[in-house]
């Protein structure tokens, strides 16, 4: 089910024990919406390969899978040719303005390939806007892992090739290498396996956090101190 902000304002005020609230963020064209569709097990968000963000407004999808109620927030892409980053953050702020419960996981979506200066800027911008608290709730999701599999490599092999001075490497170190990978074009069995790996990662992180969430207060504090 796909809905916009106004449809979920009352729903966002409560949270069930089996619910998993997830926010997706990343640069335009990395497969963010497709990642959301994989997690939800259905084509909820519109996605296509493009340098322009398909998602212009913050959108929500929900589904029940593996005994969990997934609530996924898809956001406009950063560094888009037609949407300024500040507009993207304004959309994300709308979520925190009505969600009193917070998020179990914030997922930074990154496409497998050469990590460019723009990707570096995406990571830096993201960390600046979400603050120090985000490290406890962050998972990096790599997309298009089929590129690696075609070369006989794994996602772990790819991570080892990242430069030691890369902002992504430093980020992965900070979150204790909490990452997953999605193919986005695999069969149903492969997709389910990917989502289960993702769920295990998220719930392990939840255990470490003692049930705490990334809250609207944390987000507001991070943005309050931006010069």
From TrEMBL:
The regions listed as transmembrane in this protein's record are none
Start and end residues of each AIG1-type G domain: 17-223
Pfam families given in the database record: AIG1
Q: Which InterPro entries match?
A: G_AIG1, GIMA/IAN/Toc, P-loop_NTPase
Its keywords, alphabetically, are: GTP-binding, Nucleotide-binding
Q: Where is the signal peptide?
A: none
Record-linked PANTHER family: GTP-BINDING PROTEIN A, GTPASE, IMAP FAMILY MEMBER-RELATED
Q: What is this protein called?
A: AIG1-type G domain-containing protein
The family line of this record is: Belongs to the TRAFAC class TrmE-Era-EngA-EngB-Septin-like GTPase superfamily. AIG1/Toc34/Toc159-like paraseptin GTPase family. IAN subfamily.
Superkingdom as given in the UniProt entry: Eukaryota
One GO MF term attached to the UniProt entry: GTP binding
């Amino acid at each position: 089910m796909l809905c916009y902000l106004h449809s979920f304002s009352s729903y966002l005020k409560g949270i069930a024990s089996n619910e998993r609230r997830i926010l997706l963020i990343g640069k335009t064209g990395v497969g963010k919406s497709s990642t959301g569709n994989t997690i939800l097990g259905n084509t909820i968000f519109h996605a296509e390969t493009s340098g322009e963000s398909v998602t212009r407004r913050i959108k929500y999808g929900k589904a029940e899978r593996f005994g969990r109620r997934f609530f996924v927030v898809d956001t406009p892409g950063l560094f888009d040719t037609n949407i300024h980053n500040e507009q993207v953050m304004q959309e994300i702020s709308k979520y925190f303005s009505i969600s009193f419960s917070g998020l179990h996981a914030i997922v930074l979506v990154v496409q497998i390939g050469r990590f460019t200066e723009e990707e570096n800027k995406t990571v830096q911008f993201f960390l600046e806007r979400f603050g120090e608290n985000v490290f406890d709730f962050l998972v990096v999701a790599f997309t298009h892992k089929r590129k690696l599999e075609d070369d006989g490599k794994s996602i772990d092999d790819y991570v080892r090739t990242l430069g030691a001075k890369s902002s992504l490497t430093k980020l992965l170190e900070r979150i204790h290498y909490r990452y997953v990978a999605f193919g986005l074009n695999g069969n149903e069995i492969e997709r389910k396996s990917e989502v289960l790996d993702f769920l295990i990662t998220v719930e392990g992180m939840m255990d470490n956090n003692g049930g705490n969430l990334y809250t609207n207060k944390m987000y507001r504090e991070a943005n309050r101190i931006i010069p």
